[in-house]
Amino acid sequence: MRWVFILGSLVILFLMVGFVYSDPTGTPRLSKKAALGERLFNEKILSLDSSISCASCHKPAFAFADTVAFSAGIQGRLTNRNVPSVMNVMNRSSFFWDGRAETLEEQAKIPLQHPNEMALPISEAVRRLNASPYYRKAFKQVYGQSPTADHLFDAIATYEETLETADTKFDAVADGDGALSNSEERGRQLFVGNKAKCFDCHNMEDFTDDDFKNIGLFNGTSLNDSGRFLITRDPDDIGKFKTPGLRNVAVTAPYMHNGIFKTLEEVVDYYNDVRKVVPNIQNLDPALRKPLGLTEQEKKDLVAFLRTLTDKRFIKSRS
Q1: Structural fold of domain 31-161
Q2: What is the pTM of this model?
Q3: For all residues of the chain together, what is the average pLDDT?
Q4: Cα–Cα distance for residue pair 9/20, rounded to 1 Å
């Protein structure tokens, strides 16, 4: 009875703070603030020519990533880097490949204003929202006043915080439900072991250490994006990029900050011996300075394990 009481109290508290609410059938729904953020995430008037929204590049069907190396902003202008997923970002400490934003609210501002993306001044975004009877009413219901810049980005951030996933085969097995196949289990052991070394960087609940690493995709010529260095100006950060989380990685191709690899098989093959692609690498992460020595079967097993990190909603939608 004690646990029933505690659980009931937590549910009441959850509802009181407004994170979720239910329709008459009891189905969980987004909070009003998150629902407003979802509407704004899909709102095209937040781009200069009203042609794209956040969801144009962060496609829900592909774990809120894109399917091309460089996404198209207004007038077909291309982004400078591959669009990362905005799923499982609630616990991240920085955002973008170079970590230029420290909060989700700050992260939401940058694409809005970027000339190759939505290219809309914040003041114009707020003016457009205030010109809309729908948004004036919606913001007053949620925030008690007409649209402001702070509330715009707060709403989008609140929605992005709801995009957490844990309904995967990996999570089910970890909870004692079912088992990995032989190949998937061998891949898991490789992933956490000293041979493949994946877990050195892809750890914690979302398979990222939130750090910045040089994995070899910088040579100063054909690969000339110096990554984190552009933010810190620290020579030790040349060629370093943020470790991405791996949840839903099987549906977020292409991969890396420049979308250079089209498949997980290509990614694993690259990590097996990065110097085959870029022989001379400044600041290369110590874990990658020698070939891993993976066999072809071990590579397949690693890919099989990575596919167990896909949330069931994406398996169903793409089956």
Answers
A1: Cytochrome Bc1 Complex; Chain D, domain 2 (1.10.760)
A2: 0.88
A3: 90
A4: 15
